[in-house]
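Whiteboard transcription, Tuesday session. T.W. wrote the structure tokens on the left side:
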């Protein structure tokens, strides 16, 4: 449950966004770094604040399906069906962009990603912001590029912060995000629908709604920055370990300190500096995943060990994000993460 809307804070955030400022806003997935999607300068500042290359396209957040024809030049029937079924909610649709949608939003691509979030605070914010022009907000996750996405206002305060010491004009604290991993992205701009990023709206749900198969996007699919292999990475090296190998791995690491997330606590290890109990249910696991990664990363451990979650399709988003958190940063990705990409 989210806290009741703080009217004064909501109005202040609205004013910040209307005058071209940057505000972190709560969504049901993760906190977003919002800017007026029609305001070139404001949108470009979000890239600078995140240290994100400007070629990486942003999602336009809208108040409802009625905004679709204002941001997309073509709204196929699949988009209408999915908006009807899953909006407001954690589903982003990629469509051919309209003339109104600036290249600064789409990283120069001719498609635009659009989503209508369900978090009540941001839904209301978008409703007031949209006005008669169907205005929208660009909102990448409110974290420095390559870092773990924020699922509460505290994460945003720690990472980006508010002026004068930080980088943002406001942080709207709407509580803890209930979904916890980024929205599912479906590409509807090509010959067939394809999944570009897994999230709480699963493949099974999309296939059921559309009555057809929805495969993963291939290498020809539009660019998704979360598809960089080491995205969402903690600073501490993370390993995914099968349940029956956990004790052995801990013993092999000793005396180096290790932080562990698993369903049951391995007993008798002096080098176990932090243990987090992994939830059994997928939705609970997703909700706490990024918070857990933040905590595990702050435990001063030499290594983070995570018990492998089930391999079931329902767990695709969780396994995807964990896999990226565990991936080695390659040299070019380290450059990207530091914002030194040319
Ligand atoms: O749940 C979410 O989607 C969160 C909340 C804040 O709404 N936002 C989010 O934004 O995850 P961001 O910028 O961290 O990730 C958006 C992803 C990026 O990987 C980007 O490459 C992809 O969406 N994207 C945006 N426009 C696209 C396009 N035209 N074609 C393909 N991918 C696109
Ligand atoms: Mg992100």
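and on the right, the sequence the group agreed on:
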């Amino acid at each position: 449950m989210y806290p009741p809307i703080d009217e004064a804070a909501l109005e202040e955030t609205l004013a910040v966004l209307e005058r071209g400022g940057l505000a972190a806003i709560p969504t049901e997935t993760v906190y977003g770094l919002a800017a007026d999607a029609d305001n070139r300068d404001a949108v470009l500042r979000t890239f600078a604040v995140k240290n994100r290359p400007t070629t990486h396209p942003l999602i336009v957040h809208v108040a409802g399906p009625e905004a679709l024809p204002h941001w997309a030049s073509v709204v196929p029937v699949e988009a209408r069906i999915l908006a009807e079924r899953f909006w407001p909610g954690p589903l982003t649709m990629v469509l051919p962009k309209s003339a109104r949608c600036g290249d600064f939003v789409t990283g120069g691509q001719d498609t635009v990603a659009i989503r209508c979030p369900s978090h009540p605070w941001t839904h209301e914010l978008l409703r007031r912001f949209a006005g008669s022009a169907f205005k929208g907000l660009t909102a990448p996750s409110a974290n420095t590029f390559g870092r773990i996405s924020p699922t509460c206002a505290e994460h945003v305060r720690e990472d980006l912060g508010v002026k004068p010491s930080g980088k943002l004009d406001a942080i709207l604290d709407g509580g803890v995000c209930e979904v916890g991993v980024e929205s599912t992205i479906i590409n509807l701009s090509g010959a067939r629908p394809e999944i570009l990023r897994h999230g709480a709206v699963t493949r099974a749900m999309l296939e059921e709604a559309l009555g057809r198969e929805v495969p993963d996007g291939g290498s020809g699919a539009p660019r998704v920055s979360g598809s960089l292999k080491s995205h969402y990475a903690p600073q501490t090296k993370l390993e995914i370990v099968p349940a029956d190998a956990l004790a052995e791995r801990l013993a092999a690491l000793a005396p180096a300190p290790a932080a562990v997330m698993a369903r049951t606590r391995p007993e008798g290890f002096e080098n176990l500096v932090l243990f987090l109990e992994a939830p059994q249910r997928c939705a609970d696991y997703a909700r706490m995943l990024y918070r857990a990664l933040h905590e595990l990363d702050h435990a001063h451990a030499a290594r983070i060990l995570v018990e492998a979650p089930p391999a079931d399709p329902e767990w695709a988003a969780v396994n995807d994000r964990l896999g990226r958190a565990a991936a080695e940063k390659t040299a070019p990705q380290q450059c990207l993460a530091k914002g030194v990409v040319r």
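Someone added at the bottom: The CA atoms of residues 245 and 307 lie 9 Å apart.
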